Amino acid sequence: MMKSQSTPKKLSFMSIYFLGINGVIGSGTFLLPAVIYRDMNLASVGVLLCTAVTVSLIALCYADLASRFKGSGAAWFYGYNAFGRFTGYELGIFTWFLGCCTLSAEIVALLTTLKSFLPVFDNRWVYAG
To answer: Residue 78: exposed, middle, or buried by beta-carbon count in 10 A (0-12, 13-18, 19+)?
Structure first.
């Protein structure tokens, strides 16, 4: 009995676009608006709208690049193909560094959210550990 090999599904342009939007909504929606509103009052709505437009344009750029290349790797893959090995290496290192910073920020965001529910997280040693 022969098994038919199916090709893996590819992300469409809109899927990639909405993945970027999902990342912004997930990380900023629940933590930042109250702080921004406290400091800027009604002008915070304009700030959030400008941020949404900017992030949407970045997501569109990544989606456009993804449609132009067959491989995966986002900025690293584009930099490698357009400018050579050294630029690809630099983009890879910076992407790794950005990933580490993002992970750290997500952990702090989680701990900030948890401390409103569990008082044990309202301790500076939790953040240092």
So the answer is: buried
Q: Rounded to whole angstroms, how far apart are CA atoms 60 and 28?
A: 19
Residue 69's closest CA among 82, 58, 60? 82
The 3-state DSSP class for residue 29 equals coil
pLDDT band at 5 (very low <50, low <70, confident <90, very high): low
Question: Which tens digit of pLDDT belongs to each residue from 15-35?
Answer: 766 766 666 666 665 666 677
**What are the DSSP calls for the chain, one per residue?**
-PPPPPPPP---HHHHHHHHHHHHHHHHTTTHHHHHHHHHTTHHHHHHHHHHHHHHHHHHHHHHHHHH-SS--HHHHHHHHHH-HHHHHHHHHHHHHHHHHHHHHHHHHHHHHHHTT-GGGSSHHHHH-
Mean pLDDT of the chain: 75
Token pair of 125 as six digits:
């040693």
3-class DSSP state of 3: coil
pTM of the model: 0.50
Q: Record the tokens describing residue 11, joined without a space.
A: 């992300």
